[in-house]
Specification:
The protein is of the alpha+beta class and about 130 residues long. It has one domain (about 5-110): Ribosomal Protein S5, domain 2 (2-Layer Sandwich). The chain has helices spanning about 10-20, 55-70, 95-110; strands at about 20-25, 30-35, 45-50, 80-85. Mean pLDDT is about 85; it is low at about 115-125.
Length: about 130
């Protein structure tokens, strides 16, 4: 489970990221990112619309996204940053490893991941089964 300090819980902040955040897209996920002026851990919110299908499909998509972000948190810059991840219909057939690769790519494009050599980066490998 994603630690509370990394969750974007305020509806006001969520809407602000959706309206003013920079967008990065992939066929599985849309990432909206908004830097904040506050010094705080990066926060994430997850959304899945009814286009994904039933509530079961929507919840599975959000669980996949949350798990992938949880695995990437040690590599994410800890500066004030709010992000919303929106699931797209092809995520229904995706596995956590695929979502992890996609998010890593989107986070690199958005310059969210720490550069090589900083603490928390490790060797870049993530163990999903650990």
């Amino acid at each position: 489970m994603l630690v509370r300090k990394h969750r974007l819980t305020s509806g006001r902040d969520f809407r602000l990221v959706l309206t003013k955040g920079k967008t990065y897209t992939h066929k599985l996920v849309i990432l909206k990112v908004l830097p904040t002026s506050r010094i705080q851990p990066s926060r994430f919110a997850f959304s899945a619309s009814s286009k994904l299908g039933t509530a079961v499909a929507q919840n599975r998509a959000k669980r996949l996204l949350r798990e992938a972000v949880r695995l990437l948190v040690p590599q994410i810059k800890q500066t004030g940053l709010d992000a919303v991840l929106i699931a797209r219909p092809p995520i229904r057939e995706a596995k956590v490893n695929e979502v992890l690769v996609v998010l890593k790519e989107l986070f690199r494009n958005a310059d969210i991941l720490q550069s090589s050599g900083e603490p928390g980066e490790g060797n870049g490998e993530i163990c999903v089964t650990c």
